[in-house]
Amino acid sequence: MTTSRRGLIVAAAGLGWCVRRARAAEGGYPSRPVRFLVGIPAGGAPDVIARILADRLSAHWGQPVIVDNRPAASGNLAAQAVARGETDGHTLLFAHASMLLLNEGLMRNVPFNGERDFTPVSLLMSTPFMVAARPGMPASTLAELGAYARSRPGPVTFATISATGLPRFVGERLRTSLGIEMVNVPYSAMSGAVQDTIAGRVDLLIDGTPVITPQVKGGFLKALAVTSPARFPGIEEVPTAAESISGFSSKGWFGLLGPAGMAEATVQHIAEAARSVLAAPELRARLLQDFGGEVVAGTPAEFRTSLAQDRRVYRELIAQVGASIE
Q: Would you call 287 exposed, middle or buried from its count of C-beta atoms within 10 A (0-12, 13-18, 19+)?
Protein backbone atom coordinates (compact mmCIF):
# COMPACT_ATOMS: atom_id res chain seq x y z
CA MET A 1 0.00 0.00 0.00
CA THR A 2 1.38 3.41 -0.91
CA THR A 3 1.96 6.07 1.68
CA SER A 4 -0.59 8.37 0.06
CA ARG A 5 -3.29 5.66 0.01
CA ARG A 6 -2.60 4.75 3.63
CA GLY A 7 -2.92 8.41 4.53
CA LEU A 8 -6.29 8.65 2.79
CA ILE A 9 -7.62 5.63 4.70
CA VAL A 10 -6.45 7.04 8.03
CA ALA A 11 -7.93 10.43 7.18
CA ALA A 12 -11.26 8.86 6.20
CA ALA A 13 -11.40 6.87 9.42
CA GLY A 14 -10.62 9.98 11.41
CA LEU A 15 -13.27 11.94 9.54
CA GLY A 16 -15.88 9.24 10.28
CA TRP A 17 -15.02 9.39 13.99
CA CYS A 18 -15.28 13.18 13.97
CA VAL A 19 -18.64 13.06 12.20
CA ARG A 20 -20.01 10.67 14.81
CA ARG A 21 -18.68 12.87 17.60
CA ALA A 22 -20.24 15.91 15.97
CA ARG A 23 -23.61 14.18 15.65
CA ALA A 24 -23.49 13.23 19.31
CA ALA A 25 -22.55 16.76 20.29
CA GLU A 26 -25.46 18.24 18.32
CA GLY A 27 -27.91 16.88 20.88
CA GLY A 28 -25.53 17.30 23.80
CA TYR A 29 -25.55 13.58 24.57
CA PRO A 30 -23.34 11.77 25.17
CA SER A 31 -20.79 14.41 26.04
CA ARG A 32 -18.42 11.94 27.73
CA PRO A 33 -18.08 8.15 28.19
CA VAL A 34 -21.24 6.28 29.17
CA ARG A 35 -21.20 3.54 31.81
CA PHE A 36 -23.42 0.48 31.96
CA LEU A 37 -23.60 -0.87 35.50
CA VAL A 38 -24.15 -4.65 35.45
CA GLY A 39 -25.11 -6.49 38.61
CA ILE A 40 -23.34 -9.78 37.88
CA PRO A 41 -19.70 -10.80 37.45
CA ALA A 42 -17.96 -10.60 34.09
CA GLY A 43 -18.59 -13.57 31.83
CA GLY A 44 -22.25 -14.27 32.56
CA ALA A 45 -24.93 -13.82 29.91
CA PRO A 46 -26.06 -10.34 31.06
CA ASP A 47 -22.44 -9.17 31.06
CA VAL A 48 -21.76 -10.53 27.57
CA ILE A 49 -24.96 -9.01 26.17
CA ALA A 50 -24.16 -5.68 27.83
CA ARG A 51 -20.71 -5.68 26.22
CA ILE A 52 -22.15 -6.47 22.79
CA LEU A 53 -24.55 -3.53 23.08
CA ALA A 54 -21.84 -1.29 24.54
CA ASP A 55 -19.55 -1.94 21.58
CA ARG A 56 -22.30 -1.12 19.10
CA LEU A 57 -23.32 2.05 20.91
CA SER A 58 -19.70 3.17 21.21
CA ALA A 59 -19.43 3.09 17.43
CA HIS A 60 -22.86 4.70 17.02
CA TRP A 61 -22.18 7.60 19.38
CA GLY A 62 -18.46 8.05 18.94
CA GLN A 63 -18.03 7.87 22.72
CA PRO A 64 -16.80 4.94 24.80
CA VAL A 65 -19.50 2.88 26.50
CA ILE A 66 -17.93 1.12 29.47
CA VAL A 67 -19.33 -1.95 31.23
CA ASP A 68 -18.88 -1.66 34.99
CA ASN A 69 -19.57 -4.92 36.89
CA ARG A 70 -21.05 -4.55 40.40
CA PRO A 71 -21.94 -8.15 41.25
CA ALA A 72 -22.64 -7.97 44.98
CA ALA A 73 -26.06 -8.34 46.64
CA SER A 74 -27.83 -9.92 43.64
CA GLY A 75 -27.38 -6.75 41.62
CA ASN A 76 -28.72 -4.41 44.31
CA LEU A 77 -25.46 -2.44 44.57
CA ALA A 78 -25.45 -1.72 40.85
CA ALA A 79 -29.10 -0.67 40.98
CA GLN A 80 -28.51 1.52 44.03
CA ALA A 81 -25.56 3.27 42.39
CA VAL A 82 -27.68 4.18 39.37
CA ALA A 83 -30.69 5.19 41.45
CA ARG A 84 -28.52 7.63 43.41
CA GLY A 85 -26.46 8.77 40.44
CA GLU A 86 -26.55 11.81 38.20
CA THR A 87 -29.57 12.15 35.94
CA ASP A 88 -27.70 13.15 32.78
CA GLY A 89 -27.86 9.65 31.27
CA HIS A 90 -24.14 8.88 31.37
CA THR A 91 -24.61 6.16 34.00
CA LEU A 92 -27.23 3.54 33.18
CA LEU A 93 -28.34 0.26 34.71
CA PHE A 94 -28.14 -2.76 32.43
CA ALA A 95 -30.83 -4.69 34.27
CA HIS A 96 -32.19 -8.21 34.07
CA ALA A 97 -35.73 -9.08 35.09
CA SER A 98 -34.99 -10.67 38.46
CA MET A 99 -33.26 -7.53 39.72
CA LEU A 100 -36.37 -5.38 39.42
CA LEU A 101 -39.17 -7.95 39.65
CA LEU A 102 -38.02 -10.22 42.47
CA ASN A 103 -35.42 -8.56 44.70
CA GLU A 104 -37.76 -6.14 46.41
CA GLY A 105 -40.31 -8.84 47.14
CA LEU A 106 -37.85 -11.48 48.29
CA MET A 107 -35.27 -9.45 50.24
CA ARG A 108 -35.32 -7.21 53.27
CA ASN A 109 -33.90 -3.69 53.18
CA VAL A 110 -33.46 -3.42 49.41
CA PRO A 111 -31.71 -0.05 48.91
CA PHE A 112 -33.94 1.24 46.13
CA ASN A 113 -37.56 1.51 45.10
CA GLY A 114 -38.04 0.02 41.66
CA GLU A 115 -41.06 2.15 40.80
CA ARG A 116 -39.88 5.46 42.23
CA ASP A 117 -36.10 5.51 41.73
CA PHE A 118 -35.64 4.63 38.03
CA THR A 119 -36.47 5.92 34.58
CA PRO A 120 -37.23 3.06 32.16
CA VAL A 121 -35.30 3.74 28.97
CA SER A 122 -35.55 0.68 26.73
CA LEU A 123 -36.48 -2.96 26.94
CA LEU A 124 -33.80 -4.59 24.81
CA MET A 125 -34.37 -8.32 24.62
CA SER A 126 -36.81 -10.89 25.98
CA THR A 127 -35.97 -14.48 26.85
CA PRO A 128 -38.90 -16.89 27.24
CA PHE A 129 -38.89 -20.04 29.32
CA MET A 130 -39.54 -23.61 28.29
CA VAL A 131 -41.48 -26.22 30.22
CA ALA A 132 -40.18 -29.72 29.48
CA ALA A 133 -41.28 -33.08 30.85
CA ARG A 134 -39.51 -36.28 31.80
CA PRO A 135 -39.47 -39.09 29.22
CA GLY A 136 -42.64 -41.11 29.41
CA MET A 137 -44.81 -38.24 30.59
CA PRO A 138 -48.21 -38.93 28.95
CA ALA A 139 -48.90 -35.19 28.49
CA SER A 140 -47.69 -33.33 25.39
CA THR A 141 -49.22 -29.91 26.16
CA LEU A 142 -49.98 -27.92 29.29
CA ALA A 143 -53.68 -28.69 28.92
CA GLU A 144 -52.85 -32.38 28.89
CA LEU A 145 -50.56 -31.87 31.88
CA GLY A 146 -53.48 -30.42 33.80
CA ALA A 147 -55.69 -33.39 32.94
CA TYR A 148 -52.92 -35.83 33.84
CA ALA A 149 -52.31 -34.16 37.21
CA ARG A 150 -56.01 -34.23 38.10
CA SER A 151 -56.27 -37.92 37.22
CA ARG A 152 -53.69 -39.12 39.72
CA PRO A 153 -52.85 -38.63 43.39
CA GLY A 154 -49.92 -36.53 44.50
CA PRO A 155 -48.34 -33.36 43.09
CA VAL A 156 -46.49 -32.75 39.85
CA THR A 157 -42.88 -31.88 40.67
CA PHE A 158 -40.91 -29.26 38.74
CA ALA A 159 -37.16 -28.64 38.83
CA THR A 160 -35.65 -25.15 38.71
CA ILE A 161 -32.34 -23.53 39.52
CA SER A 162 -32.94 -22.08 43.00
CA ALA A 163 -36.24 -21.58 44.77
CA THR A 164 -36.22 -17.82 44.21
CA GLY A 165 -35.52 -17.35 40.50
CA LEU A 166 -37.92 -16.48 37.71
CA PRO A 167 -38.37 -20.13 36.56
CA ARG A 168 -39.71 -21.03 40.03
CA PHE A 169 -42.41 -18.40 39.68
CA VAL A 170 -43.24 -19.51 36.15
CA GLY A 171 -44.01 -22.89 37.71
CA GLU A 172 -46.15 -21.26 40.38
CA ARG A 173 -48.12 -19.38 37.72
CA LEU A 174 -48.70 -22.67 35.91
CA ARG A 175 -49.89 -24.25 39.16
CA THR A 176 -52.49 -21.57 39.79
CA SER A 177 -53.51 -21.26 36.13
CA LEU A 178 -54.03 -25.01 35.68
CA GLY A 179 -55.53 -25.44 39.12
CA ILE A 180 -53.33 -28.42 39.99
CA GLU A 181 -50.94 -29.33 42.77
CA MET A 182 -47.29 -28.66 41.88
CA VAL A 183 -44.22 -28.74 44.08
CA ASN A 184 -40.92 -27.03 43.30
CA VAL A 185 -37.66 -28.99 43.54
CA PRO A 186 -34.84 -26.41 43.56
CA TYR A 187 -31.30 -27.28 42.47
CA SER A 188 -28.01 -25.48 42.89
CA ALA A 189 -26.71 -26.60 39.50
CA MET A 190 -28.47 -27.05 36.17
CA SER A 191 -26.71 -30.35 35.52
CA GLY A 192 -28.48 -31.97 38.47
CA ALA A 193 -31.87 -30.60 37.44
CA VAL A 194 -31.46 -31.88 33.88
CA GLN A 195 -30.20 -35.32 34.97
CA ASP A 196 -32.98 -35.86 37.49
CA THR A 197 -35.69 -34.86 35.00
CA ILE A 198 -34.26 -37.16 32.32
CA ALA A 199 -34.09 -39.96 34.90
CA GLY A 200 -37.74 -39.39 35.83
CA ARG A 201 -37.06 -38.39 39.42
CA VAL A 202 -38.71 -35.04 38.69
CA ASP A 203 -41.71 -34.54 36.39
CA LEU A 204 -40.86 -31.19 34.80
CA LEU A 205 -37.92 -28.86 34.16
CA ILE A 206 -38.43 -25.12 33.70
CA ASP A 207 -35.64 -22.86 32.43
CA GLY A 208 -34.54 -20.82 29.43
CA THR A 209 -34.72 -22.19 25.90
CA PRO A 210 -30.91 -22.39 25.38
CA VAL A 211 -30.63 -24.80 28.32
CA ILE A 212 -33.54 -27.11 27.50
CA THR A 213 -33.76 -27.07 23.70
CA PRO A 214 -30.70 -29.32 23.14
CA GLN A 215 -32.19 -31.89 25.53
CA VAL A 216 -35.49 -31.78 23.65
CA LYS A 217 -33.89 -32.01 20.22
CA GLY A 218 -31.78 -34.91 21.47
CA GLY A 219 -34.90 -36.79 22.53
CA PHE A 220 -34.05 -36.73 26.25
CA LEU A 221 -36.91 -34.45 27.34
CA LYS A 222 -40.36 -33.64 25.98
CA ALA A 223 -41.19 -29.97 25.40
CA LEU A 224 -44.69 -29.07 26.59
CA ALA A 225 -44.64 -25.33 26.05
CA VAL A 226 -42.63 -22.17 25.53
CA THR A 227 -43.80 -19.08 27.41
CA SER A 228 -43.37 -16.53 24.60
CA PRO A 229 -46.58 -14.96 23.23
CA ALA A 230 -45.99 -16.63 19.83
CA ARG A 231 -44.15 -19.79 18.85
CA PHE A 232 -40.45 -19.22 19.21
CA PRO A 233 -38.04 -19.03 16.25
CA GLY A 234 -36.12 -22.26 15.71
CA ILE A 235 -38.48 -24.36 17.84
CA GLU A 236 -41.78 -23.58 16.15
CA GLU A 237 -42.94 -27.15 16.76
CA VAL A 238 -43.23 -26.40 20.49
CA PRO A 239 -46.65 -24.97 21.42
CA THR A 240 -46.96 -21.79 23.44
CA ALA A 241 -48.33 -21.81 26.96
CA ALA A 242 -51.09 -19.51 25.73
CA GLU A 243 -52.37 -22.26 23.45
CA SER A 244 -53.43 -24.12 26.59
CA ILE A 245 -53.85 -21.23 29.06
CA SER A 246 -55.39 -18.13 27.51
CA GLY A 247 -53.18 -15.07 27.83
CA PHE A 248 -50.32 -16.87 29.58
CA SER A 249 -46.87 -15.56 28.77
CA SER A 250 -43.75 -15.06 30.86
CA LYS A 251 -40.28 -13.90 30.04
CA GLY A 252 -36.95 -12.91 31.34
CA TRP A 253 -35.62 -9.71 29.85
CA PHE A 254 -32.72 -7.29 29.66
CA GLY A 255 -33.22 -3.54 29.62
CA LEU A 256 -31.68 -0.14 30.22
CA LEU A 257 -32.79 2.14 33.04
CA GLY A 258 -31.51 5.42 34.39
CA PRO A 259 -32.16 7.27 37.64
CA ALA A 260 -35.47 9.02 38.17
CA GLY A 261 -35.57 12.57 36.85
CA MET A 262 -33.80 12.09 33.52
CA ALA A 263 -34.65 14.58 30.80
CA GLU A 264 -37.15 13.13 28.35
CA ALA A 265 -35.02 14.15 25.36
CA THR A 266 -32.06 12.17 26.73
CA VAL A 267 -34.25 9.13 27.44
CA GLN A 268 -35.62 9.18 23.90
CA HIS A 269 -32.15 9.67 22.43
CA ILE A 270 -30.78 6.58 24.20
CA ALA A 271 -33.82 4.48 23.33
CA GLU A 272 -33.60 5.45 19.66
CA ALA A 273 -29.89 4.61 19.58
CA ALA A 274 -30.55 1.20 21.14
CA ARG A 275 -33.27 0.46 18.57
CA SER A 276 -30.94 1.52 15.78
CA VAL A 277 -28.01 -0.71 16.71
CA LEU A 278 -30.23 -3.68 17.63
CA ALA A 279 -31.90 -3.57 14.22
CA ALA A 280 -28.83 -5.19 12.61
CA PRO A 281 -29.92 -8.63 11.33
CA GLU A 282 -26.63 -10.33 12.21
CA LEU A 283 -26.85 -9.06 15.78
CA ARG A 284 -30.43 -10.27 16.15
CA ALA A 285 -29.41 -13.68 14.85
CA ARG A 286 -26.50 -13.87 17.28
CA LEU A 287 -28.63 -12.95 20.30
CA LEU A 288 -31.24 -15.53 19.31
CA GLN A 289 -28.75 -18.32 18.71
CA ASP A 290 -26.42 -17.71 21.66
CA PHE A 291 -28.84 -16.46 24.31
CA GLY A 292 -32.33 -17.52 23.23
CA GLY A 293 -33.35 -13.90 23.11
CA GLU A 294 -35.59 -11.92 20.79
CA VAL A 295 -34.80 -8.25 20.28
CA VAL A 296 -37.79 -6.20 21.41
CA ALA A 297 -36.28 -2.72 21.64
CA GLY A 298 -39.22 -0.40 22.02
CA THR A 299 -40.14 2.96 23.47
CA PRO A 300 -39.60 4.10 27.06
CA ALA A 301 -43.39 4.21 27.53
CA GLU A 302 -43.75 0.60 26.41
CA PHE A 303 -41.01 -0.49 28.81
CA ARG A 304 -42.68 1.42 31.67
CA THR A 305 -46.01 -0.31 30.99
CA SER A 306 -44.41 -3.74 30.73
CA LEU A 307 -42.55 -3.24 34.01
CA ALA A 308 -45.74 -2.22 35.83
CA GLN A 309 -47.61 -5.27 34.57
CA ASP A 310 -44.79 -7.66 35.49
CA ARG A 311 -44.46 -6.15 38.98
CA ARG A 312 -48.12 -6.81 39.74
CA VAL A 313 -47.85 -10.43 38.62
CA TYR A 314 -44.73 -11.22 40.62
CA ARG A 315 -45.83 -9.38 43.75
CA GLU A 316 -48.92 -11.57 43.87
CA LEU A 317 -46.93 -14.75 43.25
CA ILE A 318 -44.32 -13.95 45.90
CA ALA A 319 -47.07 -13.24 48.41
CA GLN A 320 -48.82 -16.51 47.55
CA VAL A 321 -45.67 -18.62 47.82
CA GLY A 322 -44.20 -16.81 50.81
CA ALA A 323 -40.67 -17.14 49.39
CA SER A 324 -37.82 -15.01 50.70
CA ILE A 325 -34.05 -14.56 50.56
CA GLU A 326 -32.36 -14.05 53.91
A: buried
The CATH architecture assigned to 27-127+252-321 reads 3-Layer(aba) Sandwich (3.40)
Bridge partners (DSSP) of residue 100 are none
CATH number given to 128-243: 3.40.190.10
Q: Where are the domains of the chain?
A: 27-127+252-321, 128-243
pLDDT of residue 73: 85
**pLDDT of the residue at 105:** 87
Which H or E run includes 206? strand 204-208
Structure confidence by residue, pLDDT tens digits, 206-263: 999 999 999 999 999 999 999 999 999 999 999 999 999 999 999 999 999 999 999 9
Give the integer Cα–Cα distance in Å for 12 and 131.
Answer: 52
Identify the three-state secondary structure at position 119. Answer: strand
pTM above 0.85, yes or no: yes
What's the 3-state SS for 31-73? CCCEEEEECCCCCCHHHHHHHHHHHHHHHHHCCCEEEEECCHH
